[in-house]
Amino acid sequence: MIRAVFAEFVTFRRMLHLREMPSNVEIKAKVGDPAVFAQKAAQLSQSEGTIIRQHDTFFNCSQGRLKLRDFMNGSGQLIFYERPDTDGPKLSRYSISPTSEPSSLQTVLSDSLGVKGEVRKERRLFLIGQTRVHLDTVEGLGHYMELEVVMRPEQTLEEGQQVATDLMERLGVSAESLVTGAYMDLILKGHKET
């Protein structure tokens, strides 16, 4: 059974590269004062945001990143994405498949691919225009923010980067606070809460 699931997964990955994947422009930064950041995001989004608890399991894969996101309520998402590990606004291409059985899917993927690591976080999601703004409290790392500018089909990379840059400025995010990679990468490199 594991071989069959793995074969389906390999086929699925090949299909991802044959079609145009959805994309967004992302940035990630360390947050010194989460209360101040939340206040600015709430003002710009005209909402207090939505709290989402997430447990992400990252799996070994030869390119990009593959993670299973468990929302801790019986639902989850299998997410494959590719993006450069640079600071500042960068293009991320992704594919998402919802699941109503994250526990059993985690078992199959763990057995077939091996686990790279896990990230647990509480996310406060704000929506500002076409951008998802995340204020994350990451277990073992501390407070971070992410911007995900959801690209429209007609938008260029440069337009998405400009949206991200403008929003960084409005939220008071400095270039010095930008980080590269995923939370999983920071954990594996031994970054600690500060």
Explain the overall architecture.
- The protein is built from 5 helices and 8 strands.
- With 194 residues, it is an alpha+beta fold.
- The protein has an 8-stranded antiparallel beta barrel with strand order 1-5-4-3-2-6-7-8.
- The chain is globular, with a radius of gyration of 17 Å.
Rounded Rg = 17 Å
Q: Tell the overall outline.
A: globular
| Strand-pairing-aware structural class | alpha+beta
Proportion of strand residues = 35-45%
Helix content: 25-40%
Element order: H for helix, E for strand: HEHEEEEHEEEHH
Distance between the termini: 44 Å
Q: Tally the helices.
A: 5
Number of strands: 8
This entry's quaternary arrangement is single chain
Report low-confidence residues grouped into runs of 5 or more. Answer: 3-7, 10-19
Main β-sheet, spatial strand arrangement: 1-5-4-3-2-6-7-8
Q: What characterizes the major β-sheet?
A: 8 strands, antiparallel, barrel
Defining traits:
8 strands, single chain, 194 residues, 5 helices, disordered N terminus, alpha+beta, globular
